[in-house]
Amino acid sequence: MKERIREILEEALPLVDLDSDFLFKELDSLGVATILLKLSEEYSIKLDAKDATPKNLKSLDSLEAMVKSKLEK
Amino acid sequence: MRLVDYLHRNAELYPEKAAAICGGEKITWRELSEKVLERSASFRKGQVVPFRSSQSIDFLVTYFAIHQAGAVAAPLEKDIPENRFQEISGILTSSIVPEGTADILYTTGTTGKSKGVMISHRTIIADAENLIEGQGFSHDLLFIISGPLNHIGSLSKIFPVTMQGATLYILEGMKDLEKFFEALDYPAKKVATFFVPATTRMLLMFSGERLPKYTEKIDFIESGAAPLAHSDMLRLCEVLPKTRLYNTYASTETGIISTYNFNDGECIPGCLGRPMSHSRIIITEEGKISCQGDTLMSGYVNDPDLTATILKDNTIYTSDIGELDQYGRLHLKGRESDVINVGGFKVSPAEVEDAAMAFPGVKDCICIGTPHPITGTALKLLVMMEAGATLDKQALAKFLKGKLEIFKVPLQYKQEEEIKRTYNGKLDRKYYNSQKI
User: Fold this and answer.
1) Which of A33, B124, B357, B437 is placed for a possible disulfide with B202 were both Cys, Cβ 3.0 to 4.6 Å?
2) Is A46 part of the contact surface with chain B (CB cutoff 8 Å)?
3) Which residues face B220 on adjacent strands?
């Protein structure tokens, strides 16, 4: 799943270094919104502003964990 | 009176009232006035002062201190690449500007490249009065600014807030929507804000269900810089039934011209309301919008020829196509220009193409607008490479980031076999615009 997330985000956000130690810091508001939108489309999950925390958007691993926890609900 | 004089008046009338709140920091009108007087010693009369903008109280201190000293403020993009900052600074510091100039604001002019728009102190006061009268900025208002303060959309809100002795709440963008809700929860009688269409879309998409409880508190929201999708207008009316929702016609060159509260039961798309008290709108024979009044720019800095192409006889001739209805309301019908509006930021495709042509292996390219779910329109670069070369999208994006302001860097890239040009060698923009790529 992590590689699929990387693929989607590389396409949508070509300027963002997805391997950054702290991904959230790399993003602007459009970047955050794009991640929420792309992941909710790809995995048919509902994501809202409350999910866009620095903790959830820290790295590809934390994004994967967020998607998995949503899918379990 | 200049805007900075109102600031000192506020310090006398409401010394302990908050002038601005930002990142947990608060400054009163008295403290702001003192800091401005102190900082103003760093500038001299007539000097043009380029500086990087920031979402901070310090921006306000610098901006007003420059005016206090009789100097000219030239706030530039926060992330502007250093070489561009130096280039613009070099030009500006040797420029001679007309008496009464307050600001030089950089924008992508109707003709393409970035241009310094000169705004006078009188223009600032006229914009402030237009907004106070047209939208009801009041003394007890908390105005939330989330957009960049070097952009007229956000900067212009400092004008009526200062004139009314109200309070600004400055946010560092809308990356963390929770911070926006914290601002809404700040103890204030009324709040108001300004959004570009992308912000409205984001808020509706990810937090729409939280907005209705604020409809009593949110006095008004202004939308500007690019047309808001009608579906988003309707949705906003639904979630904020008691809030005034404005679509405004404004630009750096024309100033704040007209506004329309679309939460009026009709919610007319494209309607931008009647001209405000300092403004007049005339539709030319070709159907284009032209504007008159005290809110107009004084011209482009160092470029009288370019100024003369749009500013004649105290009238600005835009490339926007519009109509006035029987009630005198302006309706926007389109734009006759190559400029692409990305979430409220104007981008000249030629500037992006010029930068991309310098990337190794690029033989030809064209920058076009493509639909985007959040910003409405995003930039896409179609690239033709030298024989045998393959486009490295990320490397090109990073290369462009080093040369251009961030909003001018395309989000999408595609390698093409060839780029179509017209018979006289110009890029065939019409062809690509009609392709809906």
Assistant:
1) A33
2) no
3) B192, B244
Tokens of B325: 């209805």
Please name the member of B177, B375, B412 whose beta carbon is closest to the beta carbon of A49.
B177
As for how many domains chain A has, the answer is: 1
Check if B395 contacts A (Cβ < 8 Å). no
Q: Please state, in angstroms and rounded to a whole number, the distance separating the CA atoms of residues B300 and B311.
A: 10
Instruction: Name the pTM for this structure.
Output: 0.85
Asked if the C-beta of B379 comes within 8 angstroms of chain A's C-beta atoms, the answer is no
Domain that holds residue A67: 2-72
**Domain ranges for chain B:** 3-335, 340-435
Tally Cβ neighbours within 10 Å of residue B48.
Answer: 24
**Strands (E) located in B303-392:** 311-312, 315-324, 330-335, 340-342, 345-347, 362-372, 376-385
User: Which CATH superfamily does the domain covering B340-435 fall into?
Assistant: ANL, C-terminal domain (3.30.300.30)
Interface pTM (ipTM) of the complex? 0.77
* Helix axes of B121-135 and B152-164: crossing angle, nearest 10 degrees: 80
Task: Spell out the per-residue pLDDT of chain B, length 437, in tens.
Answer: 999 999 999 999 999 999 999 998 999 999 999 999 999 999 999 999 999 999 999 999 999 999 999 999 999 998 888 888 998 999 998 888 999 999 999 986 544 567 899 999 999 999 999 999 999 999 999 999 999 999 999 999 999 999 999 999 999 888 888 899 999 999 999 999 999 888 888 899 888 889 999 999 999 999 987 778 888 899 999 999 999 999 999 999 999 999 999 999 999 988 999 999 999 999 999 899 999 999 999 999 999 999 999 999 999 999 888 999 999 999 998 777 778 888 778 888 988 998 999 899 999 999 999 988 888 889 999 999 999 999 999 899 999 998 888 889 999 999 999 998 877 777 888 888 777 55
Report yes or no: A33 at the B interface, CB cutoff 8 Å.
yes
B409 vs A15: CB contact, 8 Å cut-off?
yes
Name the residue facing A36 among B199, B206, B343 (closest C-beta).
B206
- Strand, coil or helix: B356: helix
Q: Kindly report the CATH number assigned to the domain that includes residue A44.
A: 1.10.1200.10
| Pick from A15, A34, A49: CB nearest B397 | A15
**Phi and psi torsions of B56, nearest 5°:** -155, 165
Q: Is B199 on the interface with A (CB under 8 A)?
A: yes
Phi, psi of A38 (to 5 degrees): -65, -40
Give B 124-183 residues with CB within 8 A of chain A: 173-178, 181
